[in-house]
Structures are given as structure tokens and as C-alpha cells.
Design brief:
about 190 residues; mainly alpha; elongated
């Protein structure tokens, strides 16, 4: 009897799709995904119903990880809501300046997937709404006079940092965004 020690086909597909879609975009071919995961085509359809389901599941997993990163970053900044929100931009500076940064996988997926009914769009919308609520909760704790609007503005700054970081490397967009975030928080 042989005992499996490595990940199964489902996990290998998820890991391959996570890496390849970040490096090459969601348009990466099925054959490349299957080759990277070392699985048969049947596994893709059995586990995910096809490439669309695989992409949606990869995004679901990464949104959970990224949301946890926001929470860890904010907790590490202490109890002051202002410091917690500004810490997000300090963390973005690290991410954008890190090796292998290729931009925001969610923005890239939304732009590349022309079908508005693609299941990935629901995942990215839900993720952005959770991050927005996270910001809004902190803004309420801060006593901001317009927490919903300010949360929208902060989310726009986050999107801008991730887009500019990918398209204009070496420009440190998080520094400028942090300065703008200070104005939003002080309004």
C-alpha cells in the first residue's frame, strides 16, 4: 500500500493557479495550469467545474489571506484607530517594494474578465466590501464625521497604491497615499 505525502490534485491546482494567475494574469491557459499542477484535465472539472471555478476559488483563498494581513497589520499598530489605518499604508509600502510584486490580483482579474457574470467578480466585490467595512469601523472608532465616505476614499488610495506600484516601480506610491490618508483621517 502506498501512502500519499504530498498535496492532492485539488491543492496542486489551487497552488498552480495562484502562482500562474498572479505572474501571467487570469488569461493563463488551462494547459499551462494542468502542466504546472501535474494533474489530468479531469481533476480540474471534478474539483472546480472548470477554469472559472478554479479562478474564483483561488481569489477566495487569497482574499482571506489578504484580509488577515490587514487585520494583523492593524492589530500590530496598537489601539489608536488613526495609527491602525495609517499602518495599512506602511504595510502597502513593504508589499509594493517587495520582490515579485506584480500589482493587485483582484484589480487585474476584474479588468481581464470581461464577462460581468464571471464568479470571480462576486469574490472581488465581496473582498473590497469587507476591507471597506474594516476601514469604516476604524473610522467610526476614530470619531470621523463621515466614516463611510472616508472608507471609500481610503480604499481608493489602496487601489491606487497597488496599481501605481505595479505600473510605476520605484515611485513609492504608498508614501504619497499615506500623506493623503492623513488628510482624510483629519477631515
Amino acid at each position: 500500500m502506498t501512502t500519499r505525502t504530498g498535496p492532492g490534485p485539488r491543492e496542486r491546482l489551487l497552488e498552480a493557479a495562484r502562482e500562474l494567475t498572479y505572474r501571467h494574469g487570469v488569461g493563463v491557459g488551462v494547459d499551462a495550469l494542468l502542466r504546472e499542477a501535474n494533474v489530468a484535465r479531469r481533476s480540474l472539472y471534478e474539483h472546480f467545474g472548470g477554469k472559472d471555478g478554479l479562478i474564483a476559488e483561488v481569489l477566495r483563498r487569497t482574499t482571506a489571506e489578504d484580509e488577515d494581513d490587514y487585520l494583523r497589520t492593524m492589530r500590530a499598530a496598537g489601539e489608536d484607530p488613526r495609527a491602525r489605518l495609517l499602518a495599512v499604508f506602511d504595510r502597502l509600502a513593504e508589499i509594493v517594494g517587495g520582490p515579485g510584486f506584480r500589482g493587485c490580483r483582484y484589480l487585474a482579474a476584474d479588468l481581464a474578465l470581461a464577462d460581468p457574470g464571471h464568479p470571480a467578480h462576486a469574490v472581488t466585490r465581496d473582498y473590497r466590501e469587507r476591507v471597506r467595512r474594516l476601514f469604516e469601523d476604524e473610522l467610526v472608532r476614530l470619531g470621523h464625521r463621515s466614516p463611510g465616505r472616508a472608507a471609500d476614499q481610503l480604499l481608493l488610495l489602496v487601489d491606487g497604491v497597488l496599481a501605481a506600484g505595479a505600473t510605476r516601480p520605484g515611485t513609492n506610491p504608498a508614501i504619497s497615499a499615506r500623506e493623503l490618508a492623513e488628510h482624510i483621517l483629519d477631515a
